Amino acid sequence: MLMSGLRQLGLAVAAAMALMIAGSAAQAAPENVGPEECKDCHSPEYAVWEKTPHAESYKDIHKRDLADKVTEALGERSMKRSDTCGQCHYTEAPNRPGGRVGNNFGVSCESCHGPGSEYINIHNVYGPKGTKKEDETPLHKAERFAKAREAGMRLPRWREDVPDMPTDVNYDVAANCFNCHGMARETLEGDTAGKMLDAGHPLNPDFELVKYSQGTIRHRFYHSTQDNEEMTPAELSRWYVTGQAASLVQAANAMQKTQHAKYIAAQEARAEKARAALGALDLAEAKALLAQPTEANAKALVGKIYGDKMDLSGQVGSMIPPKSEYK
Ligand code: HEC
Ligand code: HEC
Ligand code: HEC
Ligand code: HEC
């Protein structure tokens, strides 16, 4: 009881400080609400998610031998309680509405879409009370997505029907996969990552966005709750390039974190693949990114290919993994 009281006090102080820092924009720091809060309105997406390793591994990943080895190597006692493991394996959220906050779910909606407390009641409101979807004004739509983004939502895709949506938003959701799958998270110290690898923690240099996002985790119910749509070849080509751009930037940054040889080699292998893919593009933005793998250059490339609705299958089509390889 005392601990949870202190914890709540800590959270309250943290929230108050975040408010002070935010100043006049006074918005509370976004927190996770947990996937159960998204379920009622997003049942098709939830049904896909609950069968993925992201959701399922929560049950038993901490029981694997490797979990003990890695946890011990960092001098921690429990995978489920560890903040280090939590940033990639768990969603820290209340176990039920109003319940106890902890690592209560695996990788879930908010791991990818952003902590929901501040956008959950913004992203789905079409106008003054009672306004229907088809009656939303373009101005309201533009504001709705801009506000949701400001409130911590990582928008899942660029939408032509939303006026003024930046054309590079897809970069954010793609780069976020590599935070975990590339062990490139800014909050993960290089030396900690090195110790994890030494203890046998995987770092898969073959993680590629199309292959890993279009199989089991795909949820694209854009037109009907029955139809989980596949990407068109043009969409696949843009998504593939977005993944390679994010991979290159994340790997280049991660390499600077540590001297750990194995970690650097894995990041180098990833960067090498991304350079080969991006090298096939006949675009000034791709050349600039190859010369200088910065986030700004990656976003310029992603913004260009979505904004101009390019079909790049002629240039990268042969490199995109076939459906039979989707995870
Ligand atoms: C009360 C119902 C409701 C709840 C709760 C809710 N959503 Fe939504 N959400 C919607 C509606 C309605 C839309 C479609 C908005 C539109 O038509 O643009 C939507 C759209 C989305 C989109 C897609 C945006 C796009 O570009 O197509 C994402 C991602 C999303 N919600 C994530 C979440 C997550 C994550 C949660 C839980 C933290 C959540 N939602 C909770 C109703 C809800
Ligand atoms: C930077 C993100 C990140 C952090 C931090 C992290 N993991 Fe992982 N972990 C992953 C990813 C991604 C995978 C899946 C890798 C794959 O399958 O390619 C994984 C896989 C695992 C696996 C399963 C491996 C297998 O092949 O069965 C275990 C066990 C594991 N992690 C334990 C831990 C423990 C314990 C900690 C904390 C000390 C931790 N991880 C911290 C990202 C992370
Ligand atoms: C591993 C990351 C990840 C997780 C976990 C995840 N999403 Fe998504 N989500 C995405 C990506 C990426 C897209 C964009 C898909 C596209 O357009 O290709 C997306 C798209 C969506 C959309 C728009 C497409 C549609 O089906 O209407 C909604 C809504 C959504 N997600 C809600 C959720 C909810 C709710 C959960 C949890 C039950 C969830 N997502 C879990 C990554 C994720
Ligand atoms: C918060 C960290 C995190 C994020 C963000 C994340 N993942 Fe994962 N992902 C994991 C972990 C951890 C595992 C391993 C679970 C296990 O081994 O049981 C995993 C497993 C997977 C798997 C199953 C792998 C296999 O070999 O079967 C796929 C596919 C996957 N992730 C795709 C994605 C994609 C695509 C994105 C981005 C849209 C993404 N993930 C974002 C942490 C994350």
From TrEMBL:
- Coiled-coil stretches are none
What start and end residues bound the annotated signal peptide? 1-28
Q: Which InterPro entries match?
A: Cyt_c-552/4 (IPR023155), Multihaem_cyt_sf (IPR036280)
Stored SUPFAM superfamilies: Multiheme cytochromes
Q: Which UniProt keywords apply?
A: Signal
Q: Which domain of life is it from?
A: Bacteria
Q: What is this protein called?
A: Cytochrome c-552/4 domain-containing protein
Q: Which residues form the Cytochrome c-552/4 domain?
A: 37-114
